[in-house]
Amino acid sequence: MRFPLIPSRGTLWTVAAAAVATVVALVVQVPQATVGRYTLGSVIVGMLWALIDIGRTMVAWRRAPLVWKRRMPAALALGVSRNLACALVNEGPNDWHVEMFDHVDPTVDFEGLPIKVLVPAEARMEVHYSIVPRQRGLVRFQPAELRVRTMYGTFQWVRRVGEEESLRVYPNFAAVARYAWLASDRRLADIGIKSYAQRGAGTDFKQLADYQVGDSIRHIDWKATLKHSRPIVRQFQDERDQCVMFLLDCGRRMRADEGATARTGSHFDEALNAMMLLAYVALKEGDAVGAMTFGTDAADLRRFAPRKWSASLNSLMATLYDAQPKATHSDYLLAARDLMKVQRKRALVVVLTNFRDEDASELEPALRLLRSRHLVLLASLRERVLREMVEQPLVTHQQVIEVAGAHLFAQSRRDAFQRLAGRDGLLIDVEPAQLPAELVNRYRAVKRAGLL
Q1: Strands (E), 91-143
Q2: Backbone dihedral region of 213: left (phi > 0), alpha (psi from -120 to 50 degrees) or beta?
Q3: Is residue 398 located within the same domain as residue 264?
Q4: CA distance 308 to 276
Q5: How far apart, in Å, do the first and last CA atoms of the chain sit?
Q6: pLDDT band at 198 (very low <50, low <70, confident <90, very high)
Q7: In 3D, which of 78, 76, 77 has the Cα closest to residue 264?
Q8: How many other β-carbons are positioned within 10 Å of the β-carbon of residue 10?
Q9: Is 109 found in the same domain as 87?
Q10: How many domains does the chain have?
Q11: Bridge partners of 248?
Q12: Which domain holds residue 149?
């Protein structure tokens, strides 16, 4: 255990000055006995002074120690900076000079620590610092460490204050919030989501309304028209009470991060954000949403039975918020069999993965099995670095080889991906930043076409 007392800068300067004085006295040939007596006396006085200082400080601390309190938010979002407000509470009659460092989780970046502060007697001192989580899951805050200056300033006394606390780090809800805001303002095109005229679309009856130019004549309700003496049409909406089931890959391919920052995350984080957005849209449309993970250890598999209503989004995230991709092989066929066992009703199955051409032999039978009952949308994340390699200037021989290799790899991957389509296959192969909008567009196209 580390020694809890650290000599202050003033103490070190005093000891250094005494040592220099002793050396000078010996150099100028002051009798050694005299130097020894003065040195011993100085040491005894210094030790007594230090003991008195330490004793007074400990007594004062035991009577009224500083209390460390954090005002923790309900949760954190991946890559989102959050200002953490804390307080040092002094209920005693003494002022305390402290240096404070809060022991945050290693997966959390922080700014504003350590903090030097004077906590007056019988006062509460507010301190703030910012944190940015770099990883989803549970993060822990250990008790804060204080270096308390003793009453006479001879030492800094190391103390631990506060309690261990924990917070959940969820995926970034920014995409969902922006979608909701833009949808209310009818500006979804700003994020690449296509809008379609809804009047008269769909197959589920919605309401009766007055005829407007452009309405289909075959939708006229003649009984209501005769009753109200004006043309009345039946309006329809996209089918509701359907199911969207996510099959989320947690294997080694989803660990790709391409130099990801805390704000973007790995391919898995990007897929989780896109899944969350589509889940929000589907729940708003009246459909049920469920999810399964695959490609990881059996103990880490997550399952979320399909549910409806907007509140289900919170439950879905509570199930998946701490899921992490592992350095394991993804067994697509086993995942398909597991989903077929639990999902009897026809659903739109969205497979989120990072496809490579060598996966085709394993993925093809899995898709064939899923398509025997469900409508399957295969969404694959394409590495951004591949595009960057293709677009680099051809200056050196090495760059020429890299560009040629990137083109060859991309073509092989593209050919294998197209072979997986099969009949009426739905495919998405985009970079992570484009995945949320593409997923929503495909979902809305499926609903509009009545494919489910």
Answers
A1: 96-101, 108-111, 115-119, 123-133, 137-141
A2: beta
A3: yes
A4: 14
A5: 65
A6: very low
A7: 78
A8: 13
A9: yes
A10: 4
A11: 293, 352
A12: 67-170
* 380 within some domain: yes
Asked if residue 289 lies in contact with residue 282, where contact means CB atoms within 8 angstroms, the answer is yes
447 has pLDDT over 50: yes
What type of residue is 332?
Answer: Y
For the stretch 375-393, pLDDT in tens is 999 888 887 777 767 777 8
Residue range 324-339: mean pLDDT, rounded: 89
Residues 228 and 296 both lie in one domain: no
Q: How far apart are CA 320 and CA 331, in angstroms?
A: 20
Considering the chain, what percentage of its residues have pLDDT values greater than 90?
19
> What is the full DSSP assignment across 242-298?
-EEEEEEE-SGGGG--SS--TTT--HHHHHHHHHHHHHHHHHHTT-EEEEEEESS-G
211 and 299 in a common domain? no
Cα 118 to Cα 30, 58, 81, 95, 124: the distances in Å are 45, 18, 27, 7, 10
User: What is the total residue count of the chain?
Assistant: 452
Peptide bond into 393 cis (omega under 30): no
Q: Residue 358: name the closest of 408, 412, 426, 402 by CA.
A: 412
With CA atoms as reference, report the closest residue to 269 among 257, 282, 279: 257
Tokens linked to 125:
């001192």
Note whether residue 3 is domain-resident: no
Same domain, 287 and 416: yes
